[in-house]
Structures are given as C-alpha cells and as structure tokens.
C-alpha cells in the first residue's frame, strides 16, 4: 500500500475532475491510500489534505473546473516554501504526489522530485502547449466551445455583412485558434508561430466581399494580437465593417468532451499502473493514441511547435 496525494494547479481546465476521479478510483482499487490536496501547491504548504474515498469523486466526471480548487503560489517557488510542503507530506507518510497543471505546475512538480517526493505530472491546460503530448487536458473541450462560439457569431455577422475578429486563448501556442479556425472554415487565422501581414489579409477580405460574400471571420490567438486592434486596423485597411469579440474565460468552461473524459481516464489509470511498476518522476501524455510518459527534463527540453501539416491544411482549404 502506498500513500498518494493529488492536486490541481495553475489555470483550471475541463477534464481535471475526470483525471482526479481516475487516479483516485484506480488507486483505491489497487489498494492504495488516496489524499486530496485543496488549492494546489498552496494546499501542500497549508497542510490542506483530506483522505479520499471512492464516493468523494462521485458526480464529478462530467463537471468542468476542478473540485480540488486550483491556485497559484509564489511562496512555493522558494526553497523554504517547498520545505514546508515536503514536511507536511512526510509527516503523513505520503511518498507520491500527482500534479495536474501546466508548464509552471510541472516546474513545481520537479521541485518536489528534487526533495525526494515521487511525483507525476498530468498536462492540465487548455492551451495544448506542453511538449511530448499530442493533447493537453481540456484542449478538445475548449476547441468545441470556441467552434460553437464562432458558429453563433457567424449567424449575426452574416445578417449585417460584417467581418468578425474573434480572439481565442493561446499566449505562446496558437493551437486553439488554428484548430477552431479549421473546424469553422474561417477566412484568416493569426497565431504567434506564423508571421502575418494585415495588408494582405485586408485585401483578401475585401476581394471576398466584392465576390459577394456576406461575412468573414478572422480568428486571432491572444499571443498574436489583440482582437480590438486587429479589427480596427482591418477596418481602416479594407473599409469593411468589423467587430471584435474576445471570448475570454468562457473558453475554460463547459462540460468536458467525451474525448477529454476518456483521455484523462486513461492517463489517471496509467499513473497508478506506473506506481505499481516502480516508475515515477515522469509526466504523462498521449502520443499516437498511446498513453506515454517522459521525464520532466525531457518535457522542458522539448519544443512546442504547432503542427505544420495542420497549418498547411488550413492554407489549402481557405
Ligand atoms: P497555465 O498553463 O494555466 O498557466 P501553469 O501550471 O503553467 O498553468 P503557473 O501559474 O505558471 O500555471 O504555475 C502554477 C504554480 O506552479 C505556481 O503558482 C507555483 O506555485 C508553481 N511553480 C511555477 N513555477 C515554479 C518553479 N519554477 N518552481 C516551483 N514552483 C513553481
């Protein structure tokens, strides 16, 4: 029997609950003792643990967000803060911690490893910006939310012969904008990974309206520009009526998609198998539909690039 704690950290994402449920239920089935930690690394330092039974994770599979709550903590970045967290784990005899979060949370996970805690990472972020996994938790749900939002905007833009400029999340990674753009058949996609020229885009939009189009849609990842400014500039360059919409936090909400539920159930289950196999200090993901794992050093050294083939698909379909 091992004692295993689980926490969620950084920005929440749809599917975190499903991942927690999978880790806890599989852990209990395999005879381990499971502990929830409230509010991420802050909870580790504040000694905010509770022992979990199977029923503690009932009714959460289909809920967005994280019932363990998430938080950010500057104190945990310091050796002193980390020592308090480690002392709290040690006094309970907890040797294993599962961290669900993004890149920053993975840095926190690695800090725990350096203190001798056997730690795992699950990629909990909607941005799809973690190397060595094809997907991150919540990305697929967010893609569906953004696709629905673009569809709603298309209806009204078409009635008024307007250009809609829609800002999606993604500071360094344009995957949400790119894939939502493909799934919505939009006219232009601006992402941080690919340089763009607003003069060219304005000319293409104008040509489209001259051919008789009733509306156009431009998706911009937040790391590639601000929707209000892009809309203003496109209006000045093309003379078309433009409207900006910043989707904001609605992108992080909603019931997790079937894909996210299955993906997180598989990863959560695999964490416990790895513990039973004596493997630790790794972050899990999915590559080519297999649940895989890598050391945190490998993840940090990995390059997070957009799928160039995917971008080509968009360019050839527009
Ligand atoms: P998101 O993708 O939503 O931004 P994230 O996990 O990257 O999620 P961060 O705010 O970067 O979010 O990190 C979450 C927490 O992880 C931080 O508040 C901090 O407690 C911990 N953390 C981040 N960087 C480090 C570090 N270098 N060392 C130790 N802990 C860290």
Automatic annotation (TrEMBL):
| Residue sites binding ADP per the record | 21-25, 154, 185-187, 211, 213-215
Q: In which pathway does it act?
A: Carbohydrate degradation; glycolysis; D-glyceraldehyde 3-phosphate and glycerone phosphate from D-glucose: step 3/4
Where the record annotates domain Phosphofructokinase, the positions are 3-275
Task: Using the UniProt record, name the top-level EC class of this enzyme in a single word.
Answer: transferase
| Cofactor(s) needed | Mg(2+)
Name of the protein in its database record: ATP-dependent 6-phosphofructokinase
Q: Give me the residues that bind ATP, please.
A: 11, 72-73, 102-105
Reaction(s) the record says it catalyses: beta-D-fructose 6-phosphate + ATP = beta-D-fructose 1,6-bisphosphate + ADP + H(+)
Protein keywords:
Allosteric enzyme, ATP-binding, Cytoplasm, Glycolysis, Kinase, Magnesium, Metal-binding, Nucleotide-binding, Transferase
Q: What gene is behind this protein?
A: pfkA
The record describes its quaternary structure and partners as: Homotetramer.
The record's active-site residues are: 127
Q: Which InterPro entries match?
A: ATP_PFK (IPR022953), ATP_PFK_prok-type (IPR012003), PFKA_ATP_prok (IPR012828), Phosphofructokinase_CS (IPR015912), Phosphofructokinase_dom (IPR000023), PKF_sf (IPR035966)
- Indicate the family of this protein: Belongs to the phosphofructokinase type A (PFKA) family. ATP-dependent PFK group I subfamily. Prokaryotic clade 'B1' sub-subfamily.
> How, per the record, is this protein's activity regulated?
Allosterically activated by ADP and other diphosphonucleosides, and allosterically inhibited by phosphoenolpyruvate.
Which amino acid positions bind substrate, per UniProt?
Answer: 125-127, 162, 169-171, 222, 243, 249-252
The question of whether Kinase is a record keyword is answered with yes
């Amino acid at each position: 029997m091992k004692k295993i704690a689980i926490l969620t950290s950084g920005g929440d994402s749809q599917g975190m609950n499903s991942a927690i449920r999978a880790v806890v239920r599989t852990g209990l089935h395999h005879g381990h003792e499971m502990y929830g930690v409230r509010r991420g690394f802050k909870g580790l330092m504040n000694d905010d643990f509770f022992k979990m039974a199977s029923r503690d994770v009932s009714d959460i599979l289909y809920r967005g967000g994280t019932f363990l709550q998430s938080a950010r903590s500057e104190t945990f970045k310091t050796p002193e803060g980390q020592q308090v967290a480690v002392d709290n784990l040690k006094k309970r005899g907890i040797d294993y911690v599962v961290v669900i979060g993004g890149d920053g949370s993975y840095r926190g996970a690695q800090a725990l490893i350096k203190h001798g805690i056997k730690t795992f990472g699950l990629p909990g972020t909607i941005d799809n910006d973690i190397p060595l996994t094809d997907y991150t938790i919540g990305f697929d749900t967010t893609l569906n939310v953004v696709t629905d939002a673009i569809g709603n905007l298309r209806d009204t833009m078409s009635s008024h012969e307007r250009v809609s400029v829609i800002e999606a999340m993604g500071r360094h990674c344009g995957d949400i904008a790119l894939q939502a753009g493909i799934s919505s058949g939009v006219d232009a996609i601006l992402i941080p990974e690919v340089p763009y020229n607003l003069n060219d885009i304005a000319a293409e939009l104008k040509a489209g309206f001259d051919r008789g189009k009733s509306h156009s849609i431009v998706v911009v990842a937040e790391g590639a520009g601000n929707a209000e400014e892009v809309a203003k500039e496109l209006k000045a360059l093309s003379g078309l009526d433009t409207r900006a919409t910043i989707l904001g936090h609605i992108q992080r909400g909603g019931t997790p998609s079937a894909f996210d539920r299955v993906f997180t159930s598989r990863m959560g289950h695999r964490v416990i198998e790895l513990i039973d196999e004596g493997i630790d200090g790794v972050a899990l993901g999915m590559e080519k539909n297999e649940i895989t794992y890598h050391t945190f050093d490998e993840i940090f050294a990995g390059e997070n690039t957009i799928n160039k083939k995917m971008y080509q698909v968009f360019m050839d379909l527009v």
